[in-house]
């Protein structure tokens, strides 16, 4: 039986290995590390190959492919979004992703990305809040206490110095779960029974709900001057979280405008409504927060470069950990033209 050569074996990070890697690094340091990789890639934004993600919509949800390349490494993520899944005991969002060598096209990493997406989404939110939230922001309202919520809270603590999180979800069981999971992580956790109670005293308002409709998680009168809104859950055509009036009062910051115009909160606005690209804030080409009274809004939809950065981070941490399987994914005969001969020699 022919053994695959080392160059054809692809490191595969399973869910179990990803969890071990996170525990080995520590979730706070890992969120900080991811934010550094994402910010580094945002700073070299212009050299990436960029396209809005390729979405296949159905009545129940969406399946998306998110590709990008920096010219040396290519990456993509497969990800779904099915808000009804939790009622059936399934995740709303699951994902896996791949990095490949642009030089020969061979994959160099395959990884679970359900947990990694939660980490990269949270790291991106906190990296953006570091630039846009009011100085000294220490309290966040976390509206929507599902799978992403603990990651969002811990990233804001690790990267922005958050001390208090105020939780609200239409399902009290989700709030109880989130509060229990956050116990012992160094945050003051306040469980609230209305969204109005959750936003009391919060300088950062995070919406992270899942519903396939134009929802109004925050109404105009709930948003005071000077806050930073981290809007995570509106990320598909016909799926938004904020009242349009809030958008008209905010300075809006986005990842990749051609994708956010289709998927983000700004799908509710005219196609030429001004927005600022976040990479320009990171490089200093555009201003971030300029006044204490300004409402800043991160209209997050999740962009391929964040997944690329996250996979790059994981690849760089793997050496010497043994936290991967060497996967026999690529047929790689000794004589590259003798694929059939390799098959024939494998006959039982
Ligand atoms: P989830 O289904 O685990 O949690 C969603 C929570 O929202 C549930 O607990 C639900 O009860 C609650 N909810 C629904 N309607 C609500 C309302 N009106 N008020 C308060 N709470 C409400 O989903 P998740 O994995 O945590 O993802 C949350 C959202 O974030 C999804 O819409 C998902 O598509 C999106 N998401 C965005 C990004 C990004 O990069 N922007 C990345 C990952 C997930």
Would you mind describing this structure in some detail?
The structure is a single chain. The chain is of the alpha/beta class. It has eleven helices and 17 strands. Helix 2 (27-43) packs across helix 4. It is 33% helix and 24% strand. The chain has two domains: 6-115 and 305-346, ornithine cyclodeaminase, domain 1; 122-303, Rossmann fold, CATH 3.40.50. The longest helix is centred in the middle third of the chain and has 19 residues, at 114-132. The model has no long low-confidence stretch (mean pLDDT 96). The strands form three sheets. It has an eight-stranded parallel beta sheet with strand order 9-8-7-10-12-16-14-15. Bound molecules: nicotinamide-adenine-dinucleotide. Residues 81, 86, 92-93, 117, 121, 143-148, 169-171, 174, 208-211, 215, 217, 232-233, 235, 300-302 line the site of nicotinamide-adenine-dinucleotide. This is Ornithine cyclodeaminase. InterPro entries: NAD(P)-bd_dom_sf (IPR036291), ODC_Mu_crystall (IPR003462), ODC_N (IPR023401).
């Amino acid at each position: 039986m022919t053994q695959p050569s080392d160059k054809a074996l692809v490191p595969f990070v399973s869910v179990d290995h990803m969890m071990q890697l996170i525990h080995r690094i520590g979730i706070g340091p890992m969120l900080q590390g991811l934010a550094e990789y994402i910010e580094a890639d945002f700073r070299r934004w212009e050299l990436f190959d960029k396209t809005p993600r390729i979405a296949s919509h159905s009545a129940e949800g969406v399946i998306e492919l998110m590709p990008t390349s920096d010219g040396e490494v290519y990456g993509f993520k497969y990800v779904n979004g099915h808000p009804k899944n939790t009622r059936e005991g399934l995740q709303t969002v699951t994902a896996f992703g791949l990095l490949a060598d642009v030089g020969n096209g061979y994959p160099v990493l395959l990884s679970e990305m359900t947990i990694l997406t939660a980490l990269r989404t949270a790291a991106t939110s906190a990296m953006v809040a570091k630039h846009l939230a009011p100085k000294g922001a220490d309290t966040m309202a976390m509206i929507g206490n599902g799978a992403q919520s603990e990651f969002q809270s811990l990233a804001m603590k690790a990267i922005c110095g958050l001390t208090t999180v105020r939780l609200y979800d239409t399902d009290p069981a989700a709030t109880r779960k989130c509060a229990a999971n956050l116990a012992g992580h160094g945050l003051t956790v306040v469980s609230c029974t209305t969204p109005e109670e959750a936003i009391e005293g919060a300088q950062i308002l995070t919406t992270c709900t899942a519903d396939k409709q134009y929802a109004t998680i925050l109404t105009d009168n709930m948003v005071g001057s000077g806050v930073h809104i981290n809007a995570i859950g509106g990320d598909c055509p016909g799926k938004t979280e904020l009242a349009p009036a809030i958008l008209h009062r905010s300075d809006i910051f986005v990842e990749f405008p051609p994708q956010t115009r289709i998927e983000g909160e700004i799908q509710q606005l005219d196609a030429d409504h001004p927005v600022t690209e976040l990479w320009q804030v990171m490089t200093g080409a555009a201003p971030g927060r300029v006044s204490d009274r300004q409402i800043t809004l991160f209209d997050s939809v999740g962009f391929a470069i964040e997944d690329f950065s996250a996979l790059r981070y994981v690849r760089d941490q793997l050496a010497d950990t043994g936290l991967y399987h060497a996967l026999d994914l690529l047929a790689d005969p000794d004589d590259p033209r003798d694929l059939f001969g390799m098959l024939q020699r494998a006959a039982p």
